[in-house]
Design brief:
Blueprint: H1 34-37, E1 61-70, E2 73-83, E3 88-92, H2 99-107, E4 114-119, E5 122-123, H3 129-134, E6 137-140, H4 152-161, H5 178-195, H6 211-224, E7 229-233, H7 241-251, E8 259-263, H8 267-271, E9 276-281, E10 284-290
Length: about 300
């Protein structure tokens, strides 16, 4: 189903509802969510035009001396990394190296024991996950995150209308611009559907999609929230060759001012998208360099022999 009046109240947090008289709104707009019509800041009119006024600082992610773990088990040890604005970086490593844990810490799902994380000029260390999202940190986990009861289009609308999509823009606007903003959101979703080859699926319930289709919806929804940095945790996991190919086509068209940090065991798929590669072994970064220079053979992951 499409999103209707009030649907987002339980889907997107912190929605500030306005009092609208339906008789004053054109009939063709009455099925759009109220939040689309309240004029709450800029909405992209096209997937490729994410925001104006971007700078090299806004999309920069810096992690310094990060240590973290689960219970008494140390997983990350003094990890440092840097993403420049618009850079695509692959995070590689064997099972248990700490890749997903690093993503959990950056996204705010796990508290670091030591170290600091900075997005642009903002320090994220003490901020919960939803505040980090509002500052422009996007995250697509390896677990399914589609809204199963919504249509594909409804899922994308939820991304475009989320509080995270409002970062960097004015919080107040005249009501007379609300209808135009609703049309802008619709245009942005239409563009995303075309880009991710989801047009024929837009009315389908997201809960019945294949793994590849669902993953494209998740990434498209994350991008419609206008992130400065997007973390992708094993986006190719479980996908067949057709699904991997479709996802690579979509990711190759991510706006150039969005930084990507991608981890996956499908090294060939990831490295062909990324400028640079990091190698994480036993919770430490042991390689940081061009993607063309990173080794992906079994010797890369061989742990030193005990002495």
């Amino acid at each position: 189903m499409r999103l209707g009046w009030g649907t987002l109240a339980g889907t997107v947090e912190d929605v500030s509802w306005k009092h609208w008289h339906r008789s004053r709104i054109p009939r063709r707009l009455q099925e759009m969510p109220a939040v689309m019509l309240e004029g709450r800041g800029p909405v992209p009119s096209d997937l490729a035009v994410v925001r104006s006024g971007s700078s090299r600082v806004r999309g920069r992610l810096v992690v310094r001396d990060l240590s973290a773990g689960w219970g008494s088990r140390a997983v990350l040890r003094d990890v440092s990394l840097r993403l420049r604005s618009g850079e695509r970086v692959a995070l590689l490593g064997p099972n248990g190296a700490g890749k997903s844990t690093l993503f959990d810490v950056i996204a705010g799902r796990l508290t670091a024991r030591t170290g600091t994380i900075q997005l642009g000029r903002e320090t994220l260390d003490r901020l919960p996950a939803h505040h980090r999202a509002r500052l422009g940190l996007g995250y697509v986990s390896q677990e399914p995150t589609v809204f199963a009861d919504l249509s594909v289009r409804g899922n994308l609308e939820a991304g475009a209308l989320s509080p995270a999509a409002q970062h960097g823009g004015p919080r107040k606007a005249s009501h007379r611009f609300g209808a135009q903003r609703a049309l802008d959101v619709s245009a942005a979703v239409d563009s995303a559907l075309r880009h991710w080859n989801l047009e024929d699926l837009q009315e389908r319930n997201a809960g019945v999609l294949s793994g590849g289709e669902r993953r494209r919806v998740e990434v498209a929804r994350a991008l419609l929230a206008r992130p400065r940095v997007l973390l992708l945790d094993e986006p190719f996991a479980g996908l067949d060759p057709e699904g991997r190919a479709a996802l690579k086509v979509g990711l190759s068209g991510v706006p150039s001012d969005v930084s990507l940090l991608v981890t996956d065991h499908s090294h060939e798929d990831v490295l062909c998208l990324c400028d640079r590669a990091l190698l994480l072994v036993d919770g430490r970064v042991v390689f940081d360099g061009p993607s063309s220079e990173v080794m992906t053979t079994s010797s890369l992951y061989r742990r030193p022999a005990a002495t």
